[in-house]
Amino acid sequence: MAVAIYPLQRAAQAPVDWVRDASAYLDSPVKTQSELSTLRQANVALSLQAQLAAQLRIENNRLRSLLHLQQSLPPKAVAAQIGAQASDPFSRKILIDRGSVQGIEPGAPVVDETGLLGQVTRVYPWSAEVTLITDRDAVVPVQNQRTGERGLLYGEPGQGQGGLELRWMPAGADVRPGDALVTSGVDGIYPAGLRVARVTAVFRQRDTAFARVLCTPVADVEGGRHVLVLQPLTPLAPAPPANASKSRVGSGARSPSAAGPPQGGERPLGGQRSVGAKISALGLKVRNGCTYHGVAINVDMDLQPFDWINPCGYAGLRTADMAGLGARASVDEVAQVFAEEFAALWHRGGDAPNMTEDRALPQPQRT
Length: 367
Hints:
This protein has a six-stranded antiparallel beta barrel. A six-stranded antiparallel beta barrel has the order 6-7-8-11-10-9. Strands 13-16 form a two-stranded parallel ribbon. The chain is elongated and about 130 Å long. It has helices at residues 2-72, 256-259, 331-347; strands at residues 77-85, 93-96, 109-111, 116-123, 128-132, 139-144, 150-155, 164-170, 180-183, 195-203, 210-217, 226-230, 277-278, 280-287, 290-297, 318-319. By secondary structure, it is α+β, with helices and mostly antiparallel strands. It folds into three domains: 27-72; 75-236, Beta Barrel (Thrombin, subunit H), CATH 2.40.10; 238-259 and 269-367, no CATH class. This is Cell shape-determining protein MreC. Residues 157-350 form the BPL/LPL catalytic domain.
């Protein structure tokens, strides 16, 4: 009996099956789209978590490297984070979240887990400004790790090969791409042996006495976050008082040696102002049958390295600069005054320029 009525049951059930299948077919795209949207949202969330986890792994590795580096450095080292980049677009400076309250000092070296990053140039109570080694005004005494030869590494952000140049290297110096440069330690600021840069290119020309050596920093000067601030080996001298005497250009300008010792029990205002300090010099060079004459004046310099040498070979002679004497003028402003005086001298046919006015250097306008 069941066998006999089975075809009739299937015929009666067929319309129901057709309606159910059609409904499922119509509902399937909507359900699939909803499930797809849910899966996409979950994928975005998982991707974000993966990115955060990767960043945490990178920071963890850097912190481990910093901890290992801190154990090999002098005990006084303060951990800090990079907070922002300085607003001046023409300089390479950053701000860190540690200041004088945490013991940060001007001149302190700043390193990351790979090498030297820069130097503290301004200190505030809870923050500090760091000038990167790629800044145009940065100079680091370095040593070639392979040969032991010393040199000066200058920041040069516009040269496009990493932002550093090893200057005043003789054309025949043994320096090649790939050489590692470390701090020499002769300046009394940076500890010896800190990794600084790697040589990327060396250019030598027959008509020049020095090679052009381009380098790239080993520290992450663009994207780092965690740093260590070291204690400088030699504390920097305090800034000159605001009422310090102004320096002038001309035959009437007097160097500290001409002024003589302080009178009336006055205390000297620092070593660069002591008797016998040199602030300017004349130069003469003969090359290819031509003579070249020049004049140099120390405007604003790092005088610390001059404590290690005898300028011009005279024992006891010290070096001063205009900034140390209180004359806050830029190199361009000093050059302008020199150019005007020499132009006046040339116009008068070689007579000595009139220096009776004892012209003062223009003072920069501060905003």
